[in-house]
């Protein structure tokens, strides 16, 4: 009497057979596998070497058996001899102790009803996710309808090869994408993930995340098919950009933060050292008379914002201005002597009548401005030393009721 397992194996809808792990001999095969041979009046071979004859990838059974046992191969794509024909077939292989179960879940030239094949066909036509399948040998890419919808193309316009896909990828991202996929295939990896920009039918670049996974392999472990998804991550990238801007620019004034400004400061100081050019730093106190501290927070913030925007408009393109404290700014003046810096800063902190009216409207009072100036290399040879020196000059000016002080 047959066991329940033997009955289930014999009547399963997918053609399947069992191979002895040590020898490669076919121990058993089910009805649907035998039918493939009955149709051509042939008998299934007795051994793996006689069953699978792939002229491109000749692999002895013992080597393949080890790869199946350690999980390196789950799906094997090879040529199966049926009578006098070699038929491309995909086998789902699973190690079961002393034997291997192989299920023929898909072929190119035969009508099989394997569940995986049905699900794949469904996914390619109906999936709401951006699903694609890539055949590495032919370089054929099959895209789902949802990819065309996602990228705003018709299904006929969806890329069908690596070349067509790369034509849509942003020029700055093509090399990164190509390298990730090339490494995945060359090293027979199981999985990869990469982010890049792709051109949509609206002629706009969209940020996407691509996740790919090996779908089937040859007997030698080489990847035959890769299946993957493309997901729109534009909102995620927009959030990342917003967070980067928050870290780089002060939210209230729009000026550089102290940390972001240091990169620019050090670069300009390096140029001054190499080229023997003058450089000055100015600390600008926006509330030297402590008037803003008595105001409500919202009014104080508006006043600081008004002052910062006014000073930013008065600076040169080469100057660097940053908010380093709640009511203090740091201004770097490249290629500027102390004398020239004094002239420029006097012009900045003494507005015209029209400018003064605008400042007062925003709650800013020009009389509250106090500036301390430090020069390289006299007052310091590093950014921190110059900033400390400029701050000392501000404190001197605040104490002596002076608007501009040179340390």
TrEMBL record:
Entries under InterPro entries matching the protein: Biofilm_reg_signaling (IPR052155), GGDEF_dom (IPR000160), Nucleotide_cyclase (IPR029787), PAS (IPR000014), PAS-assoc_C (IPR000700), PAS-like_dom_sf (IPR035965), PAS_fold_3 (IPR013655), Rev_trsase/Diguanyl_cyclase (IPR043128)
EC numbers: 2.7.7.65
Keyword annotations of the record: Nucleotidyltransferase, Transferase
Keyword presence, Flavoprotein: no
PROSITE patterns xref list: GGDEF, PAC
Domain GGDEF: 277-407
Keyword Amino-acid biosynthesis: no
Domain PAC as annotated: residue spans: 192-245
Annotated Pfam families: GGDEF, PAS_3
MF terms in GO: diguanylate cyclase activity
CDD domains the record matches: PAS (cd00130)
PANTHER family found in the cross-reference section: BIOFILM ARCHITECTURE MAINTENANCE PROTEIN MBAA, DIGUANYLATE CYCLASE DGCP
Protein name: Diguanylate cyclase
Protein species of origin: Marinomonas algarum
């Amino acid at each position: 009497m047959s066991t329940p397992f033997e009955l289930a194996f014999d009547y399963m809808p997918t053609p399947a057979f069992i191979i002895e792990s040590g020898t490669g001999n076919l121990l058993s095969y089910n009805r649907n596998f035998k039918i493939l041979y009955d149709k051509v009046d042939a008998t299934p071979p007795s051994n793996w070497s006689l069953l699978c004859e792939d002229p491109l990838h000749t692999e002895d059974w013992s080597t393949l058996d080890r790869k199946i046992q350690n999980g390196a191969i789950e799906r094997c794509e090879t040529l199966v001899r049926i009578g006098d024909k070699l038929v491309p077939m995909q086998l789902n292989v699973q190690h079961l102790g002393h034997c291997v179960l192989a299920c023929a879940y898909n072929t190119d030239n035969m009508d099989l009803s394997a569940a995986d094949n049905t699900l794949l066909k469904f996914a390619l036509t109906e999936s709401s996710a951006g699903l694609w399948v890539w055949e590495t040998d032919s370089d054929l890419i099959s895209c789902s309808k949802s990819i065309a919808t996602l990228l705003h193309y018709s299904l006929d316009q969806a890329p069908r090869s690596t070349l067509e896909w790369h034509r849509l990828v942003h020029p700055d991202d093509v090399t990164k994408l190509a390298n990730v996929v090339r490494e995945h295939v060359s090293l027979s990896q199981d999985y990869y993930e990469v982010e890049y920009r792709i051109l949509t039918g609206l002629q706009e670049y969209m940020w996407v995340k691509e996740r790919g996974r090996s779908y089937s392999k040859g007997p030698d472990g080489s990847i035959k098919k890769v299946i993957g998804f493309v997901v729109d991550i534009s909102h995620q990238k927009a959030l990342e950009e917003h967070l980067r801007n928050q870290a780089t620019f002060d939210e209230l004034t729009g000026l550089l933060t102290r940390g972001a400004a240091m990169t620019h400061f050090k670069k300009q100081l390096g140029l001054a050292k190499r080229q023997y050019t003058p450089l000055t730093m100015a600390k600008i106190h926006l509330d030297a008379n402590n008037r803003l501290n008595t105001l409500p927070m919202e009014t104080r913030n508006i006043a600081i914002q008004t002052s910062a925007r006014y000073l930013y408009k008065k600076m040169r393109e080469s100057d660097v201005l940053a908010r380093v404290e709640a009511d203090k700014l740091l201004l770097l003046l490249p290629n500027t002597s102390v004398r020239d810096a004094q002239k420029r800063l006097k012009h900045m902190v003494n507005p015209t009548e029209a400018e003064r009216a605008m400042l007062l409207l925003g709650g800013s009072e020009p009389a509250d401005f106090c500036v301390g100036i430090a020069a390289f290399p006299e007052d310091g040879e590093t950014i921190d030393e110059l900033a400390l020196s400029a701050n000392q000059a501000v404190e001197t000016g605040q104490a002596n009721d002076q608007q501009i002080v040179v340390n």
